[in-house]
Amino acid sequence: MAELIAPMDIDGDDTNPSPLKPNNNKGKNVVVSDPVHGEATPWVEKYRPQSLDDVAAHRDIVDTIDRLTSENRLPHLLLYGPPGTGKTSTILAVARKLYGPQYRSMILELNASDDRGIDVVREQIQNFAGTQSLSFGAKPPVKLILLDEADAMTKDAQFALRRVIEKYTKSTRFSLICNHVNKIIPALQSRCTRFRFAPLDSFHVTERLKHVIEAEGLDVSESGLAAVVRLSNGDMRKALNILQSTHMASQKITEDAVYLCTGNPLPKDIEQISHWLLNESFTESFKRISDMKATKGLALVDIVREVTMFVFKIKMPADVRVLLINDLADIEYRLTFGCNDTLQLGSMIATFTKARSALVAAAK
User: What CATH class does 38-196 carry?
Assistant: First the structure.
């Protein structure tokens, strides 16, 4: 009969953490390994870190949480930052270290964007926190409740959760995960140890992608890899999705293949559009950009976003640059709310026409 190992008790005085055990569960949604249809597994789940050592970046945060876990001093956690930066992967790796193979029975994982009302706090969360854990040791193990996208919870639910956290601190640890920490009420923030997960830098995204490329045996050019890293904007989940979708569409992953698959304008197209905006008349720029949009199926919001980035590379007076960037940001904001593309294209061209006049005046 296999030996039963009791999960660690965080509030106890004895340090006796459970050894890390291999586990096939990959993350938020459990993906069952299928040797026949294994290729259909999303790489986001297939290559999700299984231990704290596998987390790609934020080593200072990961090492701190790892130390607190090993010392039986894990507090309530509030992990916040942009999507795809390792928040959920980190806390799931902590759960695996705490409980080993039986970690699924010791955690309650809820997506607060779906279950965000006060009834969920009063029923599911309180019931789970209030039940006694099965333990073969001297003390019952501490359970873990994961609330993903906690910033989507209603204010009433957050206030109710505050009381539940206070009541069950001795038996349960809470981990809140969110993108916007300002949407979490101060009463909850003060009860948690906060860690900010910044967007991943290019180095860590590149290294992780190289690992996936080697494991999958992909044919990826250097420019193709650089394009995936650039388009991901520090989001590892987005980077893996781009890599997998491009691989499904093209045997060789090149820069053109990546941009074509994602529908983003190529850098050379942005350079051409910027040239028209800075040198051609309003009518000519409008016609040429409209033709390129129709021919290549580009979205104006993507063009505006990329042109904004291109403005940073152009040598011009600081006040003119600020004028351009602010106006382009306003146009992008209006496009996200469904404003007419034709009107916003005209607005973008007019913005550059005004900037050109300012450049001429500065030259004189």
Answer: alpha beta
CATH 1.20.272.10 fits 267-363, yes or no: yes
Write b or e for each residue in 231-244: b if 16 or more Cβ atoms lie within 10 A of its Cβ, otherwise e. Answer: ebebbbbbbbbbbb
Check: pTM over 0.85? Answer yes or no. no
What does the alpha-carbon distance between residue 89 and residue 61 come to, in Å, rounded to a whole number? 13
Residue ranges per domain, the chain? 38-196, 202-262, 267-363
Q: Residue 68: count other Cβ atoms within 10 Å of its Cβ.
A: 16
CA gap 213, 37 in Å, rounded: 19
Q: 307 is written with which tokens? A: 């042109």
Structure tokens at 82: 């942009």
Domain 202-262 in this protein, CATH class? mainly alpha
Residue 275 one-letter amino acid: H
| In 161-272, beta strands by DSSP E | 172-178, 193-196, 219-220, 252-253
Mean pLDDT lowest for which of 66-80, 103-117, 213-227? 103-117
Question: Are 19 and 61 contacting, i.e. CB atoms less than 8 angstroms apart?
Answer: no
